[in-house]
Amino acid sequence: MAATTSTTTTAGKPTLLHLSNSQSQTILWLLEELEIPYDLKLIDREKSGPNKNRAPAVLKETHPLGKSPQLITASGRVVIERSAITAYLIETYDAAGRFKVSGADEDHDGLREQELVGFAEASFNLTALTAMMLHYTKVLSPFFVRPLVAAVSAMLHVGYLDKELDLQLRFMDGLLARGQPYFLSDTDPTRVDFVMIFFVQTVHQSGVVNLAPYPNVLAWHDRCVARPAWKRGMEKGNGYNLAL
């Protein structure tokens, strides 16, 4: 569905405040999957100065945290956090139920969906974020301390991170080994996929994790980004590079 790129909101349509190179890209994907009219405000990260690569202050005009994504609903309410935004969009606009769990059994019900969304945002996100912070600290540190930083990073990876990442990715790989293309659906992504993919991409794009030992996760990732709606979202966004 065509999006209107503007600096104003349109009555009757949701508006996505979309920050470049951020998790907002997955909300743009969902909006394209839903094929609904929406407004799109493209916001670039700071390009220089002490706040380089951070979100600009303009995002604090609509929410005090100044983060993205922010969804302004058709009624004017500002919603933050991807889990809340995806829940709202699917509940409000997915009349056909394409992106809702079937509820056929305990492996495909609302509780299972919430469990896996919680796993993505708490357990896996924490591990992935820690790995990414160590990676960026090593890459961005001055050359004369980089060997020391790299040594500390290696110890943390060997002692904890590598084992935890492997445990969590094998858990995800097992969920996807049951023959269905998405975590909880045989046909289309659900809220779990829309939330999970960003955390997988943070470690995948940066090279922090090699997904080859987790073939089902890798195939799932490639399947998601091959969807026409994902490609349309990439065309309408303003950059999605999660690697330095």
TrEMBL record:
Pfam families: GST_C (PF00043), GST_N_2 (PF13409). Keywords: Transferase. GO terms for molecular function: transferase activity. Transmembrane segments: none annotated. The keyword Metal-binding does not apply. Residues 11-97 form the GST N-terminal domain. It comes from the Eukaryota. Residues 110-242 form the GST C-terminal domain. Belongs to the GST superfamily. This is Putative glutathione S-transferase.
